[in-house]
Amino acid sequence: MLILGAILLLLGLILKVSILWTIGIILLVVGAALFVMGSLGRPVAGRRHYW
Predict the structure, then answer these.
(1) Is 25 a domain residue?
(2) pLDDT, tens digit, 9 for 90 and up, residues 1-45
(3) Is 44 helix (H, G, I), strand (E, B) or coil?
(4) I need a labelling partner for 5 at 20 to 30 A (CA). Which of 13, 23, 30, 41 fits?
C-alpha cells in the first residue's frame, strides 16, 4: 500500500492530476498507519503482522 501510494503520488505530480495526488496521500497515510501498528506487534485486521 505504501508503494502504490508513492507511485500514485508521483504520477499525480508529474501528470498534474489532482485526484491521483489525493489518493496517493491517502494510501500513504493508511499504509504507514498499518505498517506502524503491525511493527509494534499489535494485531491488524486479525493478523499479527501486516505486509
Answers:
(1) yes
(2) 778 888 888 888 888 888 888 888 898 898 888 888 777 776 666
(3) strand
(4) 41
Can you tell me which residue has the cell 491517502? 26
- The pLDDT score that the predictor gives to residue 49 is 56
What is the total residue count of the chain? 51
Asked if the structure places residue 51 within a domain, the reply is no
**How is residue 10 written as a grid cell?**
508521483
Q: Which three cell numbers stand for residue 7?
A: 507511485
Round to whole Å and give the CA distance between 37 and 21.
Answer: 24
